[in-house]
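STRUCTURE:
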C-alpha cells in the first residue's frame, strides 16, 4: 500500500514523461501506456493494450495474440473495468504495475515481492507479462494470475510453501471478463487431482496424474503439437504443457458456459481448430452414480453398484436416481480375512482423502492397505512400465468410471466370503456360457433339421394347393414379399392374465382401443392392446404394427411379444412398462418433480437413439409418423421405449421421402410439409422429436400451450425467447436438481434445430445424437415451422378438421 501511495504522488511526474512507442516490449518507471498504445513481445507473438470485449463499452488492459486480436489470453483489471478511454498503465519505481483512471485513482495494481533496483515491465514471447529487476529476476508475473486461458509455460497448481494457488476461471460472459462461475484447478488434498468446479461444487474430475495422463482425461494423448508436464514434490504441484514446435500456437480455455477446450492455431485456415473439448456425457458428472458405484456410458443403465455392494435406496435406484449410491452387502471385518477385487480400465475414485507414496511396490501397497482397518482400496501411483508407488483410499469410493479402453487398475477391499461368492458366480456364468454355446449349437443343428423337414412338408402341401398355419402367425408385409412370424397367444391365456379384461387392469386407452395389464402363468408382466370395434385405427394399422415392430429390436423400442387373433378379437401383447408413458410424468404437476434433469436428458437421448435405429440402423428405414410424449413408454429404470407403430411406414433401399393423401398423426407434433402437402420423410419424425425435446425441457405441451403475453404455441414461444436471448426462461421451474445450464440450453438449441420450417434445414438423427452427446459448436437454427398457432387449439390426436398454422389452412383427414 505504501508503494501505491508513493505512486500517486509520483503520477504527475510520470505524466510528464514519455509514452511507450507502439513496438516496445517493455516499460520502465519513466514510461506509461495510455489507451491506444500497446506493448508487443520481441518476437511479435503477443500484444498488450486496452480493449473492449464484444459490444461492451468497458475498457480493460489485456494480452492477445498478434495474429488473432480477438483472442484475449489475459486481463489485468478483469474485475475492475474502466468506463472511458482515459486509463494509463505504468510501472512504479517500487516495481508495481498500476492502472490509473481519469482521476488518477488506482483501478488495478500488481504487487512486488521486494523493492527492486531498476525495475522494468516486459511482455515476453510466451505471452507472460513480467516485472523484473536489473538482474533479470522476476518480481511479479501475469502467469501467476491466470484468467481463463492456459498458455504454454504457464504452471497451474499450488506452491505448498507460499500457499499460492494458480488456476483458470472462466469469464462471466463473452462480454465480461470478470471471474465467472467455472474454474479448473488442482485439488491439493490427498493425491492431487484435476477438478472442474462450478462455484464451490466439483462438477467433474479429470482425476489424479498416473505418470502418463490424468486418470480420467483420455483425450490427453501423444500428439505433434505439445507435451504435457506434471510436477509433484513437497514444495509444489503443478501441470503445464510445452510446445514441441514453437511456431505453433496452442491454448486451453475455459469458456463462460463451463465448456473447456484445447485449440491449436492453423495457419492454412488462419483460424483456431479445436483439438479437444471437455466431454459432457452423464458419467462425467461428479459422483453421478453415488458412492461405491461405477459409471459406464456403454451400459444401460449407466450406473451399477460395485460387486458385493447394494443400492442404499433401491426404489430411487430403480427410478434411475443413483445419487444415494451403494453400501457393502457384507460388512468388512478388520482382520486378515480380507482380499481384493480387481477392476481394470477405470478412472480412479476421488483422491481428496487418499494417501500416496511414490516408492512402494504394489505388493507393499496391498500389505499396507490390509494393515489399516479403514483402508478400502489401493492402486498404482504411476502406471508406467510395471507400475510403481501406492495410492490408498479410506471410506467410500466416489466417482469411478469404467472405460472400454484406457483407465487403470483399482483393487477394492472385500471380505473373503464375498470374494468366494463372486468367484462362484463367475465360475457359474462361465459354465453357463459354455452350456449356452453348446446348447445353441445343438439348437441350431436341430432347428436346421426341423426347418428342412418343414420346408419339404410345406412344399408338399403347397403342391397340393393348401397352406396350413403353424403355431406362429404369418403376415405379408406391404410389398407382399416377405413373411413375418410372430408368437400367437391363446385367448384364454390372455383372458386369465388380464382378469377377463377387468377395468382394474386397464392401463390406458390409445388409438387402437384399451390397453390392459396382465400377468402370464410364467410370471411375465404384459400389456395387452385390444383392438376395439369402434377404433379409428383399424385392422390395417394393427397388421402394420405387427409387420414393422416384430422385426425390430432395440433397447429404446417397446418389445412386441406376440399377438392374439381369435373369436373376433385382435390383440397385441407387449412387454409391460411399469412407469407407463412419458406424458403422464412431464405434464403432471406432482409427477414431473420426479423427472430430474439427468432423467430428462437420459430420456431425450434414449428416444434419439431409438429413432436413429428406426431411420438408419434397422433392416428397414422406418418413419414412425406419430412420435409424441404419450408414445414414449418408461421401463422400471425410466429408460424410454418408443411405442405405437400403427402409423409407421417402412422405406426400402434409397427411398427417403413419400407422399400420402391421408394425413394422420397428432396435432402439435406434425411437421408443416406433412400437414400441408402430405410429404413425409425421416425429417417429419425429426420435427416431432424437436417438439418432444422442447416439451420435456419446458414441461409444457406444444398444443394448448398458453402464455399470458402472446398467442404462440410452445415452438413459437421457444423461438421468441431464443431470439430475445433468454432461452433459459423456457426451462421447467419444477425441476429442482442441479444440472449444467449449458447442457439444458444445448437441448433447447437442438430442439429448435429439429423443428425448423424447412425439412432440409433439420438435422438427421445421427447428427442429432452426435450434437446431444458432445459439446461441439451447433449451427444456428432458423425459424420453426408452425410457430404461430390458434390460442384455442387443443392437444389431442387428429380427429379431422381444419388446422391453421403459419397462415396456411390445411384439411387433415381423420386418423384416429
Ligand atoms: P397406445 O395405444 O400405445 O397409445 O397406449 C395407450 C396407453 O396405454 C399409453 O399411454 C400407456 O399409458 C398404456 N400403455 C401402452 N402400452 C403399454 C405398455 N407396454 N406398458 C405399460 N403401459 C402401456
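SEQUENCE:
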Amino acid at each position: 500500500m505504501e508503494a501505491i501511495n508513493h505512486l500517486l504522488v509520483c503520477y504527475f511526474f510520470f505524466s510528464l514523461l514519455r509514452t511507450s512507442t507502439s513496438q516496445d516490449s517493455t516499460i520502465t518507471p519513466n514510461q506509461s501506456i495510455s489507451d491506444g498504445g500497446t506493448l508487443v513481445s520481441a518476437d511479435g507473438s503477443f500484444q498488450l493494450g486496452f480493449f473492449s470485449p464484444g459490444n461492451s463499452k468497458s475498457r480493460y488492459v489485456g494480452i492477445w495474440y498478434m495474429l488473432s486480436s480477438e483472442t484475449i489470453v489475459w486481463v489485468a483489471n478483469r474485475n475492475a473495468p474502466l468506463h472511458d478511454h482515459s486509463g494509463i498503465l505504468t510501472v512504479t519505481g517500487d516495481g508495481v504495475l498500476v492502472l490509473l483512471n481519469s482521476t488518477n485513482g488506482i483501478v488495478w495494481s500488481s504487487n512486488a515481492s521486494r523493492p527492486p533496483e531498476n525495475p522494468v515491465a516486459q511482455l515476453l514471447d510466451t505471452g507472460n507479462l513480467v516485472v523484473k529487476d536489473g538482474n533479470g529476476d522476476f518480481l511479479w508475473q501475469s502467469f501467476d494470475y491466470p484468467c481463463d486461458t492456459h498458455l504454454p509455460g504457464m504452471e497451474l497448481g499450488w506452491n505448498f510453501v507460499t500457499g499460492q494457488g494458480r488456476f483458470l476461471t472462466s469469464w462471466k460472459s463473452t462480454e465480461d471478463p470478470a471471474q465467472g462461475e467455472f474454474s479448473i484447478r488442482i485439488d491439493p488434498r490427498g493425491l492431487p487431482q484435476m477438478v472442474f468446479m462450478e462455484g464451490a461444487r466439483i462438477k467433474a474430475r479429470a482425476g489424479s496424474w498416473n505418470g502418463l495422463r490424468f486418470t480420467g482425461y483420455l483425450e490427453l494423448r501423444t500428439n505433434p503439437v505439445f507435451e504435457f508436464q506434471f510436477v509433484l514434490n513437497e514444495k509444489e504441484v503443478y501441470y503445464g504443457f510445452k510446445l514441441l514446435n514453437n511456431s505453433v500456437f496452442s491454448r486451453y480455455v475455459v469458456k463462460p458456459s463451463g465448456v473447456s477446450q484445447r485449440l491449436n492455431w492453423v495457419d492454412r485456415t488462419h483460424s483456431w481448430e479445436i483439438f479437444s473439448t471437455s466431454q459432457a456425457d452423464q458419467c462425467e458428472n461428479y459422483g453421478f452414480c453415488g458412492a461405491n458405484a461405477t459409471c459406464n456410458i456403454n451400459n444401460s443403465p449407466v450406473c451399477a453398484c460395485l460387486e458385493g455392494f447394494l443400492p442404499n435406496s433401491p426404489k430411487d435406484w430403480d427410478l434411475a436416481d443413483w445419487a444415494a449410491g451403494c453400501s457393502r452387502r457384507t460388512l468388512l471385518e478388520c482382520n486378515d480375512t480380507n482380499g481384493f477385487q480387481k477392476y481394470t480400465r477405470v478412472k480412479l475414485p476421488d483422491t481428496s482423502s487418499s494417501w500416496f507414496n511414490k516408492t512402494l511396490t504394489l505388493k507393499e501397497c496391498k500389505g499396507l492397505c490390509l494393515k489399516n482397518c479403514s483402508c478400502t482400496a489401493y492402486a498404482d501411483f504411476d502406471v508406467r512400465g510395471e507400475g510403481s508407488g501406492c495410492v490408498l483410499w479410506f471410506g467410500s469410493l466416489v466417482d469411478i468410471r469404467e472405460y472400454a479402453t484406457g483407465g487403470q487398475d483399482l483393487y477394492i477391499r472385500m471380505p473373503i466370503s464375498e470374494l468366494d461368492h463372486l468367484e462362484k458366480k463367475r465360475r457359474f456364468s462361465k459354465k453357463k456360457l459354455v452350456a449356452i454355446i453348446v446348447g445353441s449349437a445343438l439348437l441350431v443343428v436341430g432347428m436346421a433339421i426341423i426347418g428342412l423337414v418343414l420346408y419339404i412338408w410345406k412344399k408338399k402341401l403347397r403342391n397340393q394347393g393348401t397352406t396350413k398355419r403353424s403355431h406362429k402367425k404369418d403376415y405379408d408385409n406391404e410389398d407382399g414379399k416377405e413373411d413375418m412370424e410372430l408368437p400367437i397367444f391363446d385367448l384364454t391365456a390372455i383372458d386369465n392374465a388380464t382378469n377377463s379384461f377387468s377395468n382394474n387392469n386397464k392401463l390406458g386407452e390409445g388409438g387402437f382401443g384399451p390397453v390392459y395389464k396382465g400377468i402370464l402363468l410364467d410370471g411375465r408382466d404384459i400389456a395387452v392392446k385390444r383392438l376395439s370395434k369402434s377404433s379409428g385405427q383399424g385392422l390395417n394399422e394393427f397388421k402394420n404394427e405387427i409387420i414393422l415392430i416384430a422385426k425390430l429390436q432395440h433397447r429404446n423400442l417397446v418389445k412386441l411379444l406376440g399377438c392374439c387373433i381369435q373369436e373376433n378379437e385382435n390383440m397385441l401383447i407387449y412387454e409391460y412398462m411399469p412407469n407407463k408413458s412419458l406424458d403422464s410424468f412431464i405434464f403432471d404437476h406432482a409427477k414431473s418433480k420426479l423427472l430430474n434433469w439427468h432423467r430428462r436428458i437420459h430420456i431425450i437421448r434414449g428416444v434419439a437413439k431409438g429413432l436413429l435405429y428406426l431411420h438408419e440402423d434397422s433392416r428397414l428405414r422406418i418413419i414412425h409418423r406419430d412420435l409424441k410424449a404419450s408414445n414414449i413408454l418408461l421401463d422400471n429404470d425410466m429408460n424410454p421405449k418408443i411405442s405405437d407403430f400403427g402409423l409407421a411406414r417402412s422405406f426400402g433401399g434409397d427411398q427417403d421421402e413419400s407422399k400420402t393423401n391421408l394425413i394422420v398423426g397428432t396435432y402439435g407434433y406434425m411437421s408443416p410439409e406433412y400437414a400441408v402437402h402430405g410429404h413425409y420423410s425421416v425429417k417429419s419424425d425429426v420435427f416431432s422429436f424437436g417438439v418432444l425435446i422442447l416439451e420435456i425441457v419446458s414441461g409444457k405441451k406444444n398444443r394448448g400451450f398458453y402464455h399470458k403475453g402472446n398467442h404462440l404455441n410452445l415452438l413459437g414461444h421457444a423461438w421468441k425467447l431464443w431470439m430475445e436471448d433468454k432461452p433459459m426462461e423456457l426451462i421447467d421451474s419444477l425441476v429442482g436438481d442441479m444440472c449444467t445450464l449449458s447442457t439444458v440450453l444445448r437441448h433447447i438449441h437442438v430442439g429448435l434445430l429439429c423443428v425448423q420450417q424447412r425439412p432440409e434445414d433439420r438435422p438427421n438423427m445421427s447428427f442429432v445424437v452426435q450434437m446431444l452427446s458432445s459439446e461441439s459448436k451447433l449451427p444456428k437454427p432458423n425459424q420453426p415451422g408452425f410457430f404461430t398457432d390458434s390460442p384455442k387449439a387443443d392437444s389431442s390426436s387428429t380427429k379431422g378438421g381444419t388446422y391453421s398454422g403459419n397462415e396456411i389452412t390445411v384439411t387433415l383427414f381423420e386418423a384416429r
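REMARK: The chain is about 20% helix and 30% strand.
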